[in-house]
Amino acid sequence: MRPAPPSAAPGALPTARDVVSALPWKWHTQGAIFVIGGLGFMFDAWDVALNGFLIPLLSREWGLSVGQAAWIATANLIGMAVGAFVWGGIADRIGRKRAFTLTLLVFSVFTVAGALAPNIWLFCAFRFLAGFGLGGCIPVDYALVGEFTPARHRGRVLTAMDGWWPVGATLCALTSAWLLSIGSWHLLMLVMVLPALLTVAVRALIPESPMYLLSAGRTAEADAVISRLVARTGAQAREWTHEGVEPMPHAAGLRERLRAGTGQVVELWRHSPIITSTSWLLFVAVLLVYYAALTWLPKILRAAGLADQAAFLVTGAMTAIGILGVVAAALLVEAVGRKWVLGGSAVAASVCLVWFSLELGAGSAGHVPAPGTASLSMGAKAAILAFGFFIQVAIPALYTYVSELYPTRLRGSGFGWASAASRVATGLAPLVFGSLLWPLLGLPMTFALLGGLVVVAVAAMALCTRETRGEELA
Length: 474
Prior knowledge:
Order of helices and strands: HHHHHHHHHHHHHHHHHHHH
Radius of gyration: 22 Å
Largest sheet: none
CATH class: Mainly Alpha
Organism: Brevibacterium rongguiense
Structural class: mainly alpha
Protein name: MFS transporter
Number of helices: 20
CATH architecture: Up-down Bundle
Shape: globular
Subcellular location: Cell membrane
Strand content: under 5%
CATH superfamily: MFS general substrate transporter like domains
CATH topology: Growth Hormone, Chain: A
Membrane topology: Multi-pass membrane protein
GO cellular component, one term: plasma membrane
Helix content: over 70%
């Protein structure tokens, strides 16, 4: 007889949440959801990384200035900000499965459409729409996978989810370098028809989250999903109650639905101003550092004299070593705790980025030596690889930590709004970075300023928010 979960009183029936949390992990059940969700996350990373590779290519083809080229990334990232805001609330209303399917379709269709754009402005419009779908993928994906994962495995599984990100970014770099040898930038974008095919697997193999169904009051459907999970994992069949999950807020009419986004953010701040403000600050600081490197590294390396394919491969090496960072994060978040892992790795990544810029000795953004006339020093290579490792320890720890700070009814929107805050910052950053900071201050000072923001965010987390290791999802 399986012992009752700790949250259940002696002799009392367990809650549905307790049953799901106590299920054994099986690769053909929760593992399949992890893999399908991870593939969506992989394509998400692929599309974001694509911005950095498109900037030098389109700059030459369309004769773009640095400020104009920055709109390639800005349009996509601002779209992601809007998407993160919209899709988090949608997932809390229509369900994780349906929202995840729609995000995949939107960003796939408009990325492919961008390959046919005849000018920079129409191209940026399509990148905005692709980003709109992309912005919803991460918060919806984490909510979906996390709510199926048993409590004792949840930290490692959610952290391991981010392992798909460096895989996607690395595949983007390697595939882009190869496609560039046989064709133009159009081929780099046409590859993104593949995520649309993933929606077939989502519809066929992933049930709706029982935690969402319970919060939405759809208890019969939740019971059916839980019963299937119990049977598939070989757990002991038993009865359960529907207590312990907060109900979803329901919009009563069209006007309330139109104002749902505003209502979500108000409710987040009412729930906890400290959690919400700290989550937003952490997302902004950590992801600003990461996107600054990912978006501009090919352009920075080309400014230092590397050829396009060499710059792509160095960027690919930076993202590839991040796979080891994700493994390290997955091992450390349960043993050490979310806050220590996130804080230490985020600060270390910032230091490494400053180190890289000092080793590189790059000039201003406007000074571009002939491609292929320079190579990276060993110090610069070590610094950018160390950055790639530490930042991919920090990001999965960040996603795991913030997703656990909120209760189920606010998890999608809480994560989504924190992500949206970072997307606004990272969306504006390419314009500021390419047009102002890099040309006027140089790379070391620019990256030092970003690192200072990381230190402030980590200090706020250390002082203001709790450790979530070992907590049950509320």
